[in-house]
Amino acid sequence: MSLKLFLDMISQPCRSVFLFAKKNNLPVEVKLISLKNGEQHTEKFRKVNPLRKVPALKDGDFCMGESIPMMEYMAEKFNTPDHWFPKDLQKRARVNEYLSWQHLGIRMHGAEGVHLGERMPGEPAAADKMARAMEDLNWSLDLIEKTFIKDGGFIGGEQISIADLVAIVEIMQPFASGVDVFQGRAKLSAWKERVVQAVGKELFDEAHKTILYTAAE
């Protein structure tokens, strides 16, 4: 019985799980869930994740939510290459350091502009709130460039890790509002290109086509 992943690709955590599973050619079955249509509230989905959130994982009778432990679970179960979630104490600590910081450090700021655009389209106050949201986002991006991204490498060191996947999907989210946060950021842009190269451009584009399509509408 294959492991099942329940995903909505508009969701950043879902995209990181998707990238990890597909890049590692894991024997998983992807089932798309539409949050917009409320499919997470069905009784059938509640049995997979009582929290009614995506991503969700079902492995036989075992079910779980939350993207980061989900990727760790798959890394252990399928014995993926060590660089994704290193066994070395200090390398793993660097990965976990970013994963712990990002919840409030970038996730909240990366999505705020998108949410403002959805809640306040065309309202006069939206421009001011968007400007403040961008200030917060730029503060987080400065910190990522100065603290977490290694020169010529990745967040956890010289090889890509799940920390990079979690980071890139959050940083790409403002594209849904037509905001390219990589403009004027040479170090961040170079890191993005390394991530794209590591996972493969075709897979990267597949994971992000939903938000890029939203931006084009």
Automatic annotation (TrEMBL):
Chief site of localization: cytoplasm
Spell out the GO cellular component terms annotated for this protein, sorted alphabetically and separated by semicolons.
cytoplasm
User: What is its subcellular localisation?
Assistant: Cytoplasm
Q: Which reaction does it catalyse?
A: RX + glutathione = an S-substituted glutathione + a halide anion + H(+)
Q: What is its EC number?
A: 2.5.1.18
Keyword Transferase among UniProt keywords = yes
Enumerate the UniProt keywords alphabetically: Cytoplasm, Transferase
Domain named GST C-terminal: which ranges?
A: 88-217
Please give the coiled-coil regions recorded for this protein. Answer: none
GO terms assigned for molecular function: glutathione transferase activity
Please give the superkingdom of this protein's source.
Eukaryota
Q: Which residues form the GST N-terminal domain?
A: 1-82
InterPro entries xrefs: Glutathione-S-Trfase_C-like, Glutathione-S-Trfase_C_sf, Glutathione_S-Trfase, Glutathione_S-Trfase_N, GST_C, GST_C_Theta, GST_N_Theta, GST_Theta
Q: Which GO terms describe its biological process?
A: glutathione metabolic process
Q: How does it assemble?
A: Homodimer.
PANTHER family xref list: GLUTATHIONE S-TRANSFERASE THETA-1 (PTHR43917:SF9), PTHR43917
Q: Which family does it belong to?
A: Belongs to the GST superfamily. Theta family.
Name of the molecule in the record: glutathione transferase
Question: Which organism is this protein's natural source?
Answer: Neogobius melanostomus (round goby)
